[in-house]
């Protein structure tokens, strides 16, 4: 295991996605991921609780970016406008991460247990968005409904963009926002 551990986390994530695509999620072990990444299995478990978390590691960064954007939004913006402003604010982060996110999503879509985990993470993200809206003074029910509807729109736009990068993520978010507002 001669490789430096300075980029171990990124190497582990890349190795995991490669192996999951080659062998399938269920037939890949943490030890195999560590070996592919050039680190020990112990190093794997210093970075991730289990092999699922290799795929879901970035959520904390996304939550922080979204909630910061919500907190910084002009006071006169309504809940949906605030959310879509936040979604646009994280677009560069998502675009930079597309080379990892696209194959990651293929693995998740092909693995029912991971798909279930993804839905759970999206629900937790919706809860975080609702909490951020409540901190802005939005009452409970409107905050929850806006967060869930906004999150569904954001997830739809992002997944469609991961499948096909045209139109751009920003354009897909604009379309999702207009469609959601027209339904409401």
Q: Mind explaining what this structure looks like?
A:
The protein is an all-alpha fold. The chain is built from 10 helices and no strands. Helix 2 packs across helix 3, helix 5 packs parallel to helix 8 (112-135) and helix 6 runs parallel beside helix 9. The longest helix is centred in the last third of the chain and has 24 residues, at 112-135. The model has no long low-confidence stretch (mean pLDDT 94).
State the order of secondary-structure elements, H for helix, E for strand: HHHHHHHHHH
Distance between the termini: 56 Å
What overall form do the CA principal axes indicate?
Answer: elongated
Uncertain residue segments? none
The percent range for helix content is: over 70%
**Class computed from helices, strands and strand pairing:** mainly alpha
Radius of gyration: 18 Å
Total of helices = 10
β content, as a range? under 5%
Q: Whole-number average pLDDT?
A: 94
Oligomer: single chain
Per DSSP E runs of 2 or more residues, the count of β-strands stands at 0
- Note the main sheet: none
């Amino acid at each position: 295991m001669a490789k430096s551990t300075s980029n171990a986390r990124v190497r582990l994530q890349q190795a995991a996605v490669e192996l999951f695509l080659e062998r399938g999620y269920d037939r890949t072990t943490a030890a195999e991921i560590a070996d592919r990444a050039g680190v020990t299995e112990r190093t794997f478990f210093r970075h991730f609780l289990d092999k699922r978390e290799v795929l879901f590691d970035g959520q904390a960064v996304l939550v922080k970016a979204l909630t910061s954007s919500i907190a910084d939004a002009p006071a006169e913006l309504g809940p949906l406008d605030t959310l879509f402003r936040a979604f646009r604010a994280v677009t560069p982060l998502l675009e930079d991460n597309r080379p990892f996110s696209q194959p990651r999503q293929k693995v998740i879509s092909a693995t029912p247990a991971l798909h279930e985990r993804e839905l759970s993470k999206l629900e937790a993200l919706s809860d975080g968005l609702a909490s951020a809206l409540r901190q802005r003074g939005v009452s409970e029910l409107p905050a929850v409904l806006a967060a869930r509807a906004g999150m569904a729109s954001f997830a739809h736009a992002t997944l469609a963009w991961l499948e096909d990068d045209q139109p751009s993520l920003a354009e897909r978010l604009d379309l999702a926002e207009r469609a959601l507002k027209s339904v409401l």
